[in-house]
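Translate sequence into structure tokens.
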Amino acid sequence: MLLALLLSTLPALALPTADGAPPRALETFSGSLYPGEITSPPLSWELYRDVDEFMFHYAITGGSEPDDLVYVWIEETGLRWDSLMGEGWSYCDCFLPAGSYSITIEADAAASSPLTYSIGFHLVPQPPVDFNGFILANSNVFPNDYGSFGAFFPSAASHQVVLGATSGDYEFFMDGESKAVVTGTTELSIDFTLGFHVFQVLAGEGDVRWSVQILGPPKLEVRILNTCPVLNPDSGESTCVIGAEATASDGGNPTVSYLWSGGSFNSTSSQWVEWTPPPGVADFTLTVEASAPGYLSDTDMLKAQVVPEFPSSAFPLIIAVALAVVLLTRRPRR
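Result follows.
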């Protein structure tokens, strides 16, 4: 009886708390620029999924003078991030459809030395997650401008938030409300409602190195390993082999189950699958979900394109139209 009672309570037990990890990257770029230099040609970014919102990360090193600045923009969208210095995050409530993008990066002409950049575009994360940044005292940008970041909470719950400052001090905000002034290590227990919450770091005096870690149950991070070429069934290209890989946020090695959706697969539960598009469809979104006991699940998506086949019923009509055109062009003129 006692054993049965204990077993009946297992589903209600909370998952163990795990340390955070940085948000998952969609794409990253790095390099160096001399003062006034610009990336030419622009850097290429092939985005294989639609993104409703994202996080922009930057880390600029090589100088600490007020003009040691870097500028970043996406050519096709008009989105840009100006006067970047140090390290930080910026949340963008921006829709990016799958496609090709050109990223341009420029160093300020008045920079005191060559500048090294590392930038990235990241998915909005779920806990556990951590963020780090470095705000220089000479920064020309008001810290709030590029000190905003956020996370999505899949359910209402209380989470431990660990705030750190290894140099300087800062004020930590959640959804516009001040939560703490941080001079070393501060731990908070915050009740989060379901949905997206935005955080901000407002620097104090001097150079500020900050960290924000939101603890939570361990989770999986799954990514599709390859892409599908544009398929053309008329040329014999009618299938695509794709695979996925999942990693655990706590470094564990759980038994992962995969579930594919979005078309016809030779198996919907294998790590590697063969996908066959249905006839007459030009665009498809393939989705894989990874799950494991004791871990939060995760999904990844891939856009696939197919050259539509002409349905067989259309051939008589096409032939009739072609014959009519030929007859009309061959009629003698009076």
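Note: The chain has two domains: 16-214, 220-305.
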